[in-house]
Design goal:
18 helices, 11% strand, globular
Length: 598
């Protein structure tokens, strides 16, 4: 059975030594009194909850899965999930970053994301039940009426109720403009909603007293396409004016999807038959409101793969130190044993260090981005909010796609470390691989994220967002480039920054002649820019570690951080050379072959 130890030391390093989260957020009034000790204490307790309450349920939950009573349409989560959720609610964990006006604790989103990394390492399937509720909360907090907020936010904040988002339908995935679910206006101001939604994570379960579904649907006079989509609150049980639960609504689970992974989470086909809903925001403007939840979910999915990368790495390291197999090519290392532990073999080291680098780089990128999100949502200076919001917009598709691609690679490498044992369920590694695979698909496939990054976020504003991020990189290069001990990090970072600028210009010029050039380059391009963000953050982490050592700090943590950074620059960053080359190969090799020849 796999184990999990919360990476508190690295979380604290990124939060306080790399980013200085307290200093970054002190100008935001509601965070002015939040200090490092408070953050550390919350995360320490959160780590205990993840490791001691949630993690032990992961392997069994995967084997057992969820069950649907077809007569009552009720879904039962795996054994222990409901009790763990009750402890989660009792501990006040759902309220960490929620508005105190609705019972929240008012801590930064950054703290909540760090907590969720640990939950995802412990048990991604379980974490998806409360996880989607944060997105529903954010969407209603931003776009709900005062009455809707008063009715739903306190229960979402406390965790008494959970939330979902119901977007996809059998005939349409990401292309929501094709959706057919109908919303008929009623005399009392509500709507009767009819249709079918699929792939709804945590769509039905027995963990909470009510489930608040946010449903996209069309009004009778709605224009075609995405401009004719409205958003509705459709609770599992109708909610009375005093906030109590009323009659069963006309929405139910018709079937559970039989999936490759995340078996412990109920992925539902939801049937709506004259379900009562209330409009969120303006008619035909539903995507604007839903994007609040979708963007939160995209950050959350990146966090899921970060969590899986970390836990897979931890277990693979333990195994590699214990498992003896063959002798090192350079001669025996464990002379008291009949063979050497496999961690002495170079390729095992490469697999372990790849996972470690992807975990540490992903953690730094995610925390960096969510600090900017906290600024974008609450900083008193409008210019700071706008600058931070632009950076979050740029980095969100990178977090979703780059970290999940890396998570798939990392978990696969870690399973490989185990050899044949990695393929066996009881060791837990093959589950991490299966669970990681969905993260590249849902909440907008990674190709969609790549198109969003290159087509909308970069070329769509003539590179404004990318240039702003590039200025941060350039300033760091200029400040630290004079240091001899930083050359091994600064030089490749500066070189990649120049290459990204040239590549972006080249693709933009090609796209002016044929927009499909964006589609041909986008996936490889996102990975190049993902590496730029990692190289920037690893160089910064290396600087912190070098400075600590120069100051006489002998903590081996800093030596390990430098080793990981050096491995990243030597063994992983060079991938960008081939990616840039394939980007430049352009559209012709992909589209030249006649369809009939496929």
């Amino acid at each position: 059975m796999p184990h999990y130890n919360p990476p508190l030391r690295d979380l604290q390093f990124v939060l306080h030594e790399l980013i200085d989260v307290v200093g970054e957020l002190k100008e935001i009034p509601q965070f002015a009194e939040v200090d490092a000790d408070t953050i550390n204490a919350v995360l320490e307790e959160g780590g205990k909850f993840a490791a001691e309450v949630v993690a032990p349920l992961n392997l069994g939950g995967d084997a057992q899965g969820c069950t649907l009573d077809k007569a009552t349409h009720e879904v039962t989560a795996p054994e222990g999930f409901k009790a763990a959720y009750a402890k989660y609610v009792e501990g006040g964990w759902p309220a960490l970053s929620c508005d105190p006006a609705y019972g929240g604790q008012g801590l930064p989103h950054t703290v909540n994301q760090c907590f969720y990394e640990m939950l995802n390492s412990a048990n991604q399937a379980w974490t998806m039940y409360p996880g989607l509720s944060h997105g529903a909360y954010e969407a209603l907090h931003a776009h709900g009426t005062d009455e809707q907020k008063a009715l739903y936010l306190p229960k979402l904040t406390s965790g008494e109720w959970t939330g979902t988002m119901c977007l996809t339908e059998p005939h349409c995935g990401t292309d929501l403009g094709l959706l057919r679910t109908k919303a008929e206006p009623q005399a009392d101001g509500t709507y009767k909603i009819t249709g079918q939604k699929i792939f709804i994570s945590a769509g039905e379960h027995d963990l909470a007293a009510n489930i608040v579904h946010l449903v996209l649907a069309r009004l009778p006079d709605a224009p075609a396409g995405s401009k004719g989509i409205s958003l509705f609150i459709v609770p599992k049980f109708l909610v009375n004016a005093d906030g109590s639960v009323g009659a069963r609504n006309g929405i139910h689970c018709g079937a559970l999807e039989h999936k490759m992974g995340i078996h412990g989470n109920a992925t539902c086909q939801m049937i709506l038959e004259d379900a009562v809903g209330t409009l969120v925001g303006q008619p035909n403007k539903g995507l604007q409101a839903m994007f609040v939840m979708m963007n939160a979910a995209r950050l959350g999915v990146g966090n899921q793969s970060l969590g899986l990368t970390e836990v897979a790495y931890q277990n693979a390291v333990t195994y590699a130190k214990d498992r003896i197999q063959m002798r090192a090519l350079s001669g025996p290392k464990a002379t008291d044993k009949p063979a050497d532990p496999i961690i002495v073999h170079p390729d095992v080291r490469k697999m372990l260090l790849t996972a470690r680098a992807f975990a540490e780089g992903g953690r730094a990128l995610l925390i960096h981005t969510v600090v900017q999100l906290d600024k974008a949502l609450a900083h008193p200076d409008e210019d700071v909010r706008k600058e931070a919001d632009d950076e979050v917009a740029l980095l969100t598709p990178i977090i979703k796609a780059f970290i999940t691609d890396n998570g798939w690679l990392a978990t696969s490498h870690c399973m490989q470390v185990y050899g044949g044992h990695g393929y066996i369920h009881e060791w837990g590694m093959e589950q991490f691989v299966r669970d990681a695979r969905i993260n590249m698909i849902y909440e907008g496939t990674n190709t969609v994220q790549s198109l969003d990054l290159l087509g909308r976020k970069i070329l769509g504003d003539n590179g404004k967002k990318l240039k702003a991020f590039g200025k941060k990189v350039a300033a760091f290069v200029e400040d630290e480039g004079v240091r001899e001990d930083m050359q091994e990090f600064i030089n490749p970072l500066a070189d990649l920054g120049d290459k990204v600028t040239k590549l972006t210009t080249e693709i933009g010029m090609k796209a002016m002649g044929n927009a499909d050039e964006v589609g041909a380059a986008a996936v490889d391009y996102l990975r190049v820019v993902g590496h730029l963000t990692f190289a920037y953050l690893f160089a910064r982490m290396a600087k912190v570690a070098l400075d600590a050592q120069k100051a006489g700090n002998t903590d081996p943590f800093y030596a390990a951080k430098l080793h990981t950074a050096r491995f990243y620059f030597a063994k992983l960053l060079p991938e960008t050379a081939s990616l840039i080359r394939t980007c430049r190969a352009g559209l012709q090799p992909l589209m030249a072959m006649d369809e009939q020849l496929f």
